[in-house]
Amino acid sequence: MNNIKTKIMKNWKFLTILAILGGLIVMSFKPIDKKVIVIDAGHGGMDSGAQYNNFAEKQIVLNISEQIKKLNKNSDLEIILLRPDDKAISLTDRAAKINAINPDLVLSLHLNKSTNVDSSGIEAFVSEKNTFYDKSKNLAESFLNKLNFKELQNNGVKTKDLHILRTSNCPAILLEIGYLSNTNDRNFITSTLGQKEIAEKILNAIKD
């Protein structure tokens, strides 16, 4: 009987040690928390956004957002496309999806257009009504400093009470990447090389 008890105790101790070791091994391989960024390609579906001849804002910003995701090779950075195809999504649904994901940042991509063909450049918008206004503003300023395109002048960070910027429960930036109505801007943002450069620089800004 004593021998049986001894064996049981030894087995119990052995299993306890295995369980502890197993727990330590699992903890040592615990995944690092990822940085999650939501890219919101503006417009979609019947809503084309700004247009010039055959160029439509909705498709250009979708192309850029797809390239940002494709270019990302950082396992600690997850890029989520809010609009992965040419489908309309209401502003209410966009905000709900963003808040369900609870990302570290939402970046809404858009293009500008003006009756003044001389208007040009890249600019960022944030909302003073967003809880993360200060962080959004700081990130937007940092973004614009890193998006130093020789083709697009820096028009700075501005405040605007836009739905996505106001209702997102995280830092939120709307980025206007040039004017379709301006010849120089348009030539850059509609070109394959221009869109790739924009995607690369946005991704690098997100990584930092």
From TrEMBL:
Domain MurNAc-LAA: 95-207
Gene3D superfamilies (alphabetical): Zn-dependent exopeptidases
GO cellular component terms, A-Z: outer membrane-bounded periplasmic space
Protein's UniProt keywords contain Transferase: no
Keyword Hydrolase carried by entry: yes
Catalyzed chemical reaction(s): Hydrolyzes the link between N-acetylmuramoyl residues and L-amino acid residues in certain cell-wall glycopeptides
Name of the protein: N-acetylmuramoyl-L-alanine amidase
Organism annotation: Halpernia humi
PANTHER family for this protein: N-ACETYLMURAMOYL-L-ALANINE AMIDASE (PTHR30404), N-ACETYLMURAMOYL-L-ALANINE AMIDASE AMIC (PTHR30404:SF0)
Keyword entries, A-Z: Hydrolase
Its EC number(s): 3.5.1.28
GO BP term, pick one: peptidoglycan catabolic process
Top-level EC class as recorded in UniProt: hydrolase
Pfam families (UniProt xref): Amidase_3
GO molecular function, one term: N-acetylmuramoyl-L-alanine amidase activity
InterPro entries: MurNAc-LAA_cat (IPR002508), N-acetylmuramoyl_amidase_3 (IPR050695)
